[in-house]
Amino acid sequence: MLNPRLPDGTRLEISLTVNGAARTIHAYPMTRLLDVLREELNLTGTKEGCGEGECGSCSILMDGFLVNSCLIPALQANGTSIVTIEGLANDNRLHPLQKAFLECGAAQCGICTPGMILAALHLLDKIPQPSLDEIREGLSGNLCRCTGYFQIFEAVAKLSRNGVAD
Amino acid sequence: MRFCAYCEGVKLTESEETIIGTSVPRKEGRDKVTGAARYVDDIRLPGMLYGATVRSKIARGKIKRISFSPEIDWNEYVIATAKDVPGKNCIALILDDQPCLVDGVINHPEEPVVLIAHPDKHALAKAVEGVVIESDPLPAIYSMEGSEKQSEIIWGTDNIFKSFLIEKGDVDRVWAEADFIVEGEYFTGAQEHLYIENNGMIAVFDSVAGVTVWGSLQCPFYVHKALMALCGLPEEKIRVVQLETGGAFGGKEEYPSMIAGHASILAMKSGRPVKIVYDRLEDMVATTKRHPSRTRHRTALRKDGKILGGEIDFTIDGGAYATLSSVVLSRGTIHAGGPYLWPSVRIRSKAVATNTPPHGAFRGFGAPQSLFAMERHMDRIAKIVGLSPVEIRRRNFLQPGQTTTTEQVIREPINLSDLLDKSLAHASYKAKKENFARENKTSSIKKGMGIAAFLHGAGFTGSGERYLDSVVGMEGTADGSVRILVSSTEFGQGTNTVLCQIAAEALGIPYESVTIAQADTTIVPNSGPTVASRTAMIVGNLVRSAAIGLKQTLQLDGTLKKTFKPAEFGAACRKYVAEKGLLRSLARYNSPEGVYWDDVTYKGEAYAAYAWAVYVAEVSVDLTTYAAKVENFVALQEIGKVLHPVLAEGQIIGGIAQAIGLALYEKVLWQNGRMLNGQMTNYIMPASCDLPPIRVVFEEIGNPHGAYGAKGIGELPMDGPAPAILNAIVDALGVPFDSIPLLPEDILEAITRRVQSRQQITSPQESPC
Ligand code: FES
Ligand code: FES
């Protein structure tokens, strides 16, 4: 884990857009974006599973790219636009992908779910009608220990059949 | 594109006519898909400290001195050692042999010795390094064989935590009558649970209220019992609350008591809330794993392949302390004979001590280990007797009226031959076997088919459920809804959903009108631990009884008519609560009639119900990379009534995925009692590209003892895949493999060894597969 314990003077002002809202925070440059989201912005939907870029639980979208927020230093997020799981449901209405996850049993313990949903969103954005192999590939950076993945594949496929609402 | 059998037709609105058997939405599902669900690491309390653990590092020895680096300002830290334990320094479970903090004697390399806490979690790593533990090392034991030799006595008087003996018939007489005697030795390795949420706890101490802990856990009352002893506080001054738990698989059954203990000690010493959340490395190396095992079979058979009898010797590595090893051993012992008729058998088993972190509960609980051996051994027997793997099983399957190794009579109308035929048909077994036999001759990719037939007992073993004496509560509330009170926890399997379905069905009200209370020991009664595939079957049945009790209370009182509409039920609840106050019903476990179990001779009804299954694996092995890959998988099982098709299918597929990991990917590398590969980068679990298409088929016979005919389901899928896969690899390559995990390097080594031994062949005898 990076140790962001540096003298106070080195905190930097970082401005970024999170789920559509402009935010400014003060953080040590090497603080992990994951910690900024969870601890500074209280967006705890983004999870930590490994802290080393393997599990994908901390996946978010940064300027449209799927990234592991445990590997991104806060400084690198300056000026970017970020989407976390909290940014998906609209006025309490679930995003179709969230609904599909619910219907297909794609979330069991739920700890991988936020990252998995963002990975799936990213995949469907690039490939609106993915094949099974493309779904497997698109989710290959996100580990799930509970489901054995097939019900997640089904949720993604269901959405590609029905079309993404937005 | 359709990958799941049940997803179509799932309705998210309005309750159905019958709720049982339909895929209602997961109760806490909405919070999980929106990120609103709160896990332990999502919670911060004002003034909270973060705790960390300094561990022993050596496998065995005596602590001489603990010193603290002068480079760190220790005034900033709260520090606790064994002398700060307010009560008894142990993790109370079955035996109280495991200390919460080492007091002098180290028995494995990951033992907690010193606890530290600080308001800034980033200040912990350096401080952990700054604590130096000096010790005099003692000789340590790292293997089951070493433990058996007793060159060092590291536990008790003989290094044995527990042993069992099951005897049926007179096995000493069968050897003389046998046409064949087949021997085999089988090994399974340690396996890490790898729930994606690491372990964590928050503790708060108040001199009046006592200790409260919130955390990621399976069994609130296990933690409660452990904290009472450790903190030296009475029952009512310990409160344990389960938070959303990000996977468990048995891995959060006993170790959470340790972490809760550590957080509580620090909270009591500092007077501030303390959070301890492990990082991945600490979670992997220090917490429990699946028990490694060794099974030896010696079987006497008639010419026609019928088993006359046999001896089975089953040994598991328990690690340094007793923890749950005796119970894991018990289940493994009872399952060791598989779903076959043994006219006579002697099963000896033991759990031995080594200087590694204690191994613990893991989905399947000993059964995957002994069933792996049984099912590999069946294929070895088939080869020697000259029958097919299909036929050898068919001739020996247990049938209704016959008895298991513990002499439990099979009363249900199970037809294993029929399950076998159906699963083979789903897998196109015969046609594929013929094709592969032809194609393998010329291809560098060898393909094979393998079968495993097995059973899994649901609920606690033998008299276990009677001792647990579970209680379930149910409340009618002022808003007309119903609330279930159980200590059964949700960690992904669907406890919340299935128990609410059962209550709604029993009351004749919509699923939406039933909620389930958070598992908080001050609110819920002790309905037992959430383990052993017992929740749907046993707790579910109690939920049903409690629901009937609630309904009767309202009806006897005249508030509710004999027949009623759902809305009338809600109105009756509201009226009753407004006029009379608390509306609550309790149900207590009653062991079914005629159930007999003898703990001394290990005879009788080991389980109230068994789930039955036949799994078929299709595997390919690429002889350029030596990687084995599961190409297709058929999982056919009889699990009684399927209460919720989507959840049930999810349990089966998830279990198979984990078992494929056990068979082909997940290898714990040990050095001097420590796990070397405690990261997700070097301990490899299956990812989305690694799994074959899995066909899940349910047969429903039902179970008179389970809620609406349910049996246990969660552990079953862990038992069969590994032997089916290994049998398929043996079928593909013609080389015997008897040890899991089986990685490409293991396959390469075995093939190389075989080629070498062929070159210097002295005897024409092929080693049988
Ligand atoms: S926590 Fe970032 S990849 Fe695992
Ligand atoms: S749902 Fe538990 S890890 Fe994916």
Main attributes of the structure:
heterodimer, A: 166 residues, Ubiquitin-like (UB roll), 2 domains, five-stranded mixed beta sheet, 15% strand, B: 769 residues, Aldehyde Oxidoreductase, domain 4, 29% helix, disordered N terminus, disordered C terminus, binds FE2/S2 (inorganic) cluster
CATH topology of the domain at 412-459 and 599-769 in chain B: the name is Aldehyde Oxidoreductase, domain 4
In terms of per-residue confidence, which ranges of chain A show pLDDT below 50 for 5 or more consecutive residues?
none
Mean pLDDT across residues of chain A: 92
> For the largest beta sheet of chain B, what order do the strands appear in spatially?
3-5-1-12-9-10-11
* Number of distinct beta strands of chain A: 5
Q: Could you characterize what this model shows?
A:
The complex is a heterodimer of chains A (166) and B (769). Chain A contains 5 helices and 5 strands; from the N terminus they run E-E-H-E-E-E-H-H-H-H. Chain A has 166 residues and is of the alpha+beta class. Chain A folds into 2 domains: 12-87, Roll (Ubiquitin-like (UB roll)); 96-162, DNA polymerase, domain 1 (Orthogonal Bundle), CATH 1.10.150.120. Chain A has a 5-stranded mixed β-sheet, with helices on both faces. The mean pLDDT of chain A is 92. Chain B is of the alpha+beta class. Among the domains of chain B are: 7-37 and 472-588, Aldehyde oxidase/xanthine dehydrogenase, molybdopterin binding domain (Aldehyde Oxidoreductase, domain 4); 412-459 and 599-769, 2-Layer Sandwich (Aldehyde Oxidoreductase, domain 4), CATH 3.30.365.10. Helix content of chain B is 29%, strand content 23%. Chain B is built from 20 helices and 28 strands. In chain B, the strands form 7 sheets. A 7-stranded mixed β-sheet of chain B has the order 3-5-1-12-9-10-11. A 6-stranded mixed β-sheet of chain B has the order 7-15-14-13-8-28. In chain B, strands 16-23-24-27 form a 4-stranded mixed β-sheet, sandwiched between helices. Chain B is globular. The two termini of chain B are 40 Å apart. Mean pLDDT of chain B is 94; it is low at 1-16 and 761-769. Classes of the chains: A alpha+beta (166), B alpha+beta (769). The interface between A and B is large, with 65 and 68 residues. One FE2/S2 (inorganic) cluster (FES) binds next to loops of chain A.
